[in-house]
Amino acid sequence: MTRAISLGCMGMSGMYGDSDENESIATIHAALDRGVTLLDTGDFYGMGHNELLIGRALKDRKGKAQLSVKFGALRGPEGSFIGFDARPASVKTFLSYSLVRLGVDHIDIYRPARLDPTVPIEDTIGAIADLVKAGYVRKIGLSEVGPETIRRANAVHPIVDLQIEYSIISRGPEEKIFPLLKELGIAVTAYGVLARGLLTGVKPTGPGDFRAHMPRFSGENLERNQPLIDALARIAAEKGVKPAQLAIAWALAKGENIIPVIGARKRSQLEDALGALEIKLSPDELAHLEKAVPASAVAGTRYQAQQMAHLDSER
User: NADP-dependent oxidoreductase domain spans which residues (predicted)?
Assistant: First the structure.
């Protein structure tokens, strides 16, 4: 079971609205007990709250989890995003604070959350490589970057994986990015496999839920996306599984190097996700599913226009 799924912890720190800390910790423990050992976080999730939460969850389970940490996003005290910083000195500072919040002596996979347009990727990766040599980081990853950046980064230090949004309705990486990753032997940690709940019919819970500001969840776009949601639900019902499980199973079937990051905030959500491991999709079933839920039909971009403009992976 360890092959398949990473537990994404972002939603445990307010990005999807209120969450229960005790249930979040119980979910992390349940994941570890079920063999899901890769925990994904960012030092800016809840302005450090997420790392502190994970640190508490792992206090009595030292060495039981692998930690994948993103860094670089700058946030104001009220929660706003105010920039990005991947300068070498900042990289080492961010890492220092993450080690303390998480209560560990090293990070398993450390990655810039985005490309800093003001800093050559060689400088950022070089700084992380220094941390690898010093024993504070085990492996280096990337997030939401395109082919040129991947090649340049990998030339400085081997890259273990790329984290990028990938789902049955967000298939952009397949054209240029995935072939390069295969060439270089780089894995994928795929987030947004459920399109942040869109594919399962989830609606934003309120203004504190960042999905309320995402184009695919807006009024007219949401109406246009409903047929895709309905099609996935219909095929899932025919197969006797839940839509979320089918969406995860689709991602798993697209390549052995793809590890879905599942943002379960509750043990029940985790159990649903783990059910996807039992689903095997034949090539014919994959083709049928992709025809019924075509990525070309989705209305709205992954992020708002300003955020899309900062995605190196979209260039």
Answer: 5-292
